[in-house]
Amino acid sequence: MSSSDPSVPVPRRTALDALHRSLGATMTDFAGWDMPLRYGSERDEHLAVRTRAGLFDLSHMGEITVTGPDAAALLNFALVGNIGSVGVGRARYTMICRADGGILDDLIVYRLAETEAGSSHFMVVANASNAQTVLDALTERAEGFDAEVRDDRDAYSLIAVQGPESPGILKSLTDADLDGLKYYAGLPGTVAGVPALIARTGYTGEDGFELFVAPGDAVRLWEALTEAGAGAGLVPCGLSCRDTLRLEAGMPLYGHELTTSLTPFDAGLGRVVKFEKEGDFVGREALAKAAERAAENPPRVLVGLVAEGRRVPRAGYQVVIGGTVVGEVTSGAPSPTLGRPIAMAYVDAAHSAPGTAGVGVDIRGTHEPYEVVALPFYKRRK
User: Fold this and answer.
1) Euclidean distance between CA atoms 32 and 13, whole angstroms
2) 20-28 long-range Cβ contacts below 8 angstroms, 24+ apart
3) Shortest CA distance to 53 belongs to which of 168, 133, 176?
4) How far is 324 from 319, CA to CA, in rounded Å?
5) How buried is residue 261: exposed, middle or buried, by Cβ count under 10 Å (0-12/13-18/19+)?
6) Is the dihedral of CA 22, 25, 26, 28 positive or negative?
């Protein structure tokens, strides 16, 4: 089938596409976007983020703006978290669920502004693969609320600088108060002359920032960050090392650790569901039952597995003890930091304690030995 076949969707390109190609990036189709997988060695990119700094294009993420007098009430109804309690300039990790409690996506919600007239301004950031689903669900759930849901995916490019050197690099380009910017907070500022929402968030387990800017400013900002970070060892990084970084940090990935067949309680993330908030919310009844089930009969637990050998487990491989299947791998990869293959897996609660003996992963018929460990595999020194 030729690439000119109209039945084959053409991947979307970010504002930084030509720049990635000029840097020799290996590109890949990810959630309908042409994205850089790696520029050189994914191991080198991974270790740069752990020890120095890495630069990422995350413009495939889905930004949805929610505004109006009832914006907070709408988000409290549509999502499982208590969004009404998020202060201006702060962000919250939360989820959007179906009526049956299944996870549609995990999200970060920023409260950007509050007007004197009582209108709120939120930005919801969805995963690229689920952005349309989340937009459709929010639009449908907005009925009856005095609030507007707007698709702003084309309004933003998203550039992240992550790693221990990232605060110093960014400080050289902005007069925004980065020292006062807490984790999961955001503020408007100017970076290298470019207006940006500067957020102290990320998906690597390191300190870092995500910069939301107009697509027309993306190249200028990327080049300024590259220049400012040259002496600090900053390197461009692709999606491949982003995946190993988040895996080491024990962060769930939608489609792997989170799916519509799991509730937040099944995923060990019941803490994001806030039953105490006022009013009803989509999935409340089903999630209350899921919480009861989890308390009475613990579901499978998400654990870390560290290989004793060199073979890498992949999503879908079975976790076994003495010939009995006790779980399933959700994500697996070689860990550049640990120097051994690692995996996250859902296993029966009875076999989830760190140090559980006799655990193996069925890799093409051979039960490879693995050690059960608590997540995350890696935690940065504060």
Assistant:
1) 9
2) 20/57, 20/236, 23/236, 25/236, 25/238, 26/238, 28/239
3) 168
4) 8
5) exposed
6) negative
What's at 307, amino acid-wise?
A
Q: How many CA atoms lie within 13 A of 46 on its CB side?
A: 23
Antiparallel, parallel or unpaired: β 148-151 and 120-126? unpaired
What's the Cα-to-Cα distance from 41 to each of 47, 221, 241, rounded to whole Å?
10, 24, 9
How far apart CA 113 and CA 198 sit, in angstroms, is 14
Structure tokens given for 268: 């060990």
Calpha distance 345→347 (Å, rounded): 6
With 0.90 as the threshold, say if the pTM is over it. yes
> What is residue 131's three-state secondary structure?
helix
Contacts of 42 (CB under 8 A, 6+ apart): 238, 240, 241, 244
Q: Name the token pair of 354.
A: 């760190």
Tens of pLDDT, residue by residue, the chain (382 residues): 445 566 778 899 999 999 999 999 999 999 999 999 999 999 999 999 999 999 999 999 999 999 999 999 999 999 999 999 999 999 999 999 999 999 999 999 999 999 988 999 999 999 999 999 999 999 999 999 999 999 999 999 999 999 999 999 999 999 999 999 999 999 999 999 999 999 999 999 999 999 999 999 999 999 999 999 999 999 999 999 999 999 999 999 999 999 999 999 999 999 999 999 999 999 999 999 999 999 999 899 999 999 999 999 999 999 999 989 999 999 999 999 999 999 999 999 999 999 998 999 999 999 999 999 999 999 998 7
Q: Is-contact 189 196, C-beta < 8 A?
A: yes
**Close Cβ partners of 297 (under 8 Å, ≥ 6 residues apart):** none
Contact 379, 206 (CB under 8 A): no
Region of 31 (left: φ > 0; alpha: ψ -120 to 50; beta: rest) is left
Query: Residue 286 corresponds to which amino acid?
Result: A
